[in-house]
Amino acid sequence: MISQWQLRAAFAARLSDMYGREVPAYTTLVDVSREVNEEALRARGADAERLGSIGRVTAERHGAIRVGTPAELRQVARIFGALGMRPVGFYDLRETKGSAVPVVSTAFRPVDHDELARNPFRVFTSLLTPADPRFFDAGLRARLDRFLADRELFPPELLALADRAEAERELPDAEAERFLQLAVEAFALSPEPIDKAWYETLERVSGVAADIGGVRSTHLNHLTPRVLDIDELYRRMTGRGIEMIDTIQGPPRWKGPDLLLRQTSFRALAEPRALRTPDGRVTSGALRVRFGEVEARGIAVTRKGRALYDRLLALLDEQTALRPGADRGELARALWTEHVPGSEHELAARALAYFTFRVAPERPRDGGRPPTGIADLLRDGWIRAEPIVYEDFLPRSAAGIFQSNLSGEGSRDNAKEGAAYDSAWLSGALGREVLDPYALYARRQHVSLAQVARELGLGDAPG
Question: Does one domain contain both 201 and 329?
Fold first, then answer.
């Protein structure tokens, strides 16, 4: 019998092999990531593994796919449910600054710490929003709805095997092999000719809309290895002649603790695709929609920490607008140095980031009563804090990478009011709860604090 985590690991590995064949530059990205990680481990020793073992980091991937309807999204949830992956977080990429990306998204991933340690594969999954009149007028929406209703992304056999794997949390060897074969095929790039006129109609709205609603299948949009030094990787990829997007998205590189997520990618490549013209002829063309992304993960922040991050981004935007010739990275570093604590200890003491806590072996032994607050316990040496890695995503960063890899700017009518989508709506569309990532991190932290309270004889978990 093949367990869910083994299915997940095998699926991630096979997707990686497939995507490397489809997009050879991705293989280069993986190779360079491995080189950088090995050098970081030699240079930094155990500190390099503070946010995950080198084995986990090297194997780690996140993929990205795009679907068109709630029905398709529910089918995706069944496939990833077979792999022990649940929807976590709601991301509205429409609302980021300057976005012409008409999607809302969630990420399917393991949620249990042990499952994440075994294999932390994630899939960032975006759903088109045809109901948003800023992007789609009534006529285009009707055409799009008809097109999407007339396609089948996933074969019934795959979905039946997925349901069995989710219910039983494992599959027999033969069924597991069949499931993996069908699942990987479902996310391969289809050779079927694309209706050129229809694709271009949607592309005028957004390249992402065309990639979702202009084809009769879905495909892996990008696959992302994890790297320990994303700035060094950016330099090495550029040195190999691979064109990268202009910036690394997310927090700046600075002297303090790594927080949240930093991402970048090489630019979408022109891939040969068969195109059907209005007169029925099939011609050879090229589309730029798929790219290779890479990520560096930091510490998960609390809601208070996230509010600070968002405030600093707003300040950075203001300063960049006032000083158009200034280096944005330098401005960001100055802001972070001024406003963000420079140590993990202070992040934990100020409840800006999530940690697991344990009683320190060398804690005071003078018979004194331990304090009851986290900051005091840390200061006086009673407990130690271990950072919890950020397992999720940033909508502004995701939209920035999507936008940086589009061939055109797209269009958006800001005079119209956007359609309302939120986490509750997405949960209803999925037929399963979209989990709150903050609650997942907080629960893990609380469990560790409860253990600290028991060991130190405190009445309640420290706060």
Answer: no
